[in-house]
Amino acid sequence: AKRQGRGCVRVFDESMDESIRFRRQIEGGLSEAIAKNELKLVFQPIVGRDLDITGFEALIRWCSPEYGMVPPAMFIPIAEESNLIHELGDWVIDEAIDVLKSWPGQYVSVNFSPRQFRRHNFVAHVVERVASAGVEPGRFQIEITETAIFDNVERAAEILFKLRQMGFRIALDDFGTGYSSLYNIRRFALDCLKIDRSFVDGMGRERESAAIVHSVIHLGRALGMEVVAEGVETAAQLEALRIAGCSHMQGYHLSRPVDAEDALVLAEKGSLA
Ligand code: C2E
Ligand code: CA
Ligand code: CA
Ligand code: CA
Which residues form the EAL domain (predicted)? Predict the structure, then answer.
């Protein structure tokens, strides 16, 4: 038993080493990825009830010649632990703005990590980039999660208020998975709630998920907010969401994220119907 125990400890140590080495590799690769042109954005349509496309969420992709397709869930948290997230985030903003200019009227929804949001002069930073590109702030949506706001509620409220005053759209991402969700929607100036896909996924199976989806839809509507159901994967989910009165939908059943060229084609068509 003792040997087994020691073995476990050693395996644990080795895997720690492995994971630290892996992190360093990713960090190193990522810091060169922009210059080497290995990053790209893909865009997933967000549609209204009649399948008209109102916006696109920008999602980052890293095609590394060394590691292959690295999913953002793997490298964003690593970037988030260093200043790399700022460089990466700025690249995403600029790229999203650039693509947005060719769409007829839809908005682009950009993910901001908590650390970007907490950056000194965050508002001035975003405003400068969007304004200097000549883009209307109403076509730029800032997606944040509750993690970004809960550690300094007063400051977050001030930032979101300023951004919204200037016409930016604000969406609360992964709604329902964070802390004190109801408090946050009362306290903050928001345009859009994005229902986390775990609830949409559970809708057809569990009474609890279905009840939560229904109440978020009603809450959003009562407060004049757009509600986007994320992760719609089946026709049955789409139908259930429509019946529940959900205003907007996003998910593989409607469209996978597509590259900029295909997004332009969809944007010009204006609808997924
Ligand atoms: P998220 O913001 O919640 O983005 C939605 C994720 O769900 C995306 O994964 C999208 O491809 C995926 N998705 C969309 N429809 C469906 C569906 O019907 N079923 C399922 N199973 N998944 C669906 P992706 O692109 O791998 O991104 C993962 C996460 O990485 C994002 O979650 C976001 O937190 C982060 N991320 C992606 N791009 C960026 C970025 O530019 N900046 C920052 N800070 N984070 C990003
Ligand atoms: Ca998002
Ligand atoms: Ca989400
Ligand atoms: Ca998420």
Answer: 23-271
Local structure of residue 250 (DSSP, 8 states): -
Please tell me the distance from the alpha carbon of residue 223 to that of residue 123, in angstroms, as a whole number: 25
Q: How far is the CA of 13 from the centre of ligand 4 (A)?
A: 30
As a whole number of angstroms, the distance between CA 194 and CA 173 comes to 5
| ipTM for the predicted complex | 0.98
Which atom in ligand 1 lies closest to the alpha carbon of residue 72?
Answer: 30
- In short, whether 173's Cβ falls inside 6 Å of ligand 1 is yes
Ligand 1 atom nearest to CA at 143: 2
Pairing of strands 140-144, 107-111: parallel
Using the structure block, give the residue that is written with the tokens 């929607």. Answer: 185
169-175 and 140-144 beta bridge pairing:
parallel
pTM over cut 0.95: no
Give the mutation target among 57, 59, 109 for probing the ligand 1 site: most ligand atoms within 8 A of CB. 59
143 alpha carbon, closest ligand: 2
Which residue is closest in CA terms to ligand 1's atom 32?
A: 73
Q: Which atom of ligand 1 is nearest to the CA of 80?
A: 44
- Phi–psi pair at 71, nearest 5 degrees: -70, 145
* Identity at 106, one-letter amino acid code: Q
> Which residues make beta-bridge pairs with 268?
none
Rounded to an integer, what distance in angstroms lies between the CA atom of residue 211 and that of residue 224?
Answer: 20
Listed in sequence order, the DSSP H helices in the chain are 2-33, 72-80, 84-100, 114-117, 122-132, 146-149, 153-165, 181-187, 197-202, 207-222, 235-243, 260-269
pLDDT tens column, 216-270: 999 999 999 999 999 999 999 999 999 999 999 999 999 999 999 999 999 999 9
Neighbours of 220 (CB within 10 A): 23
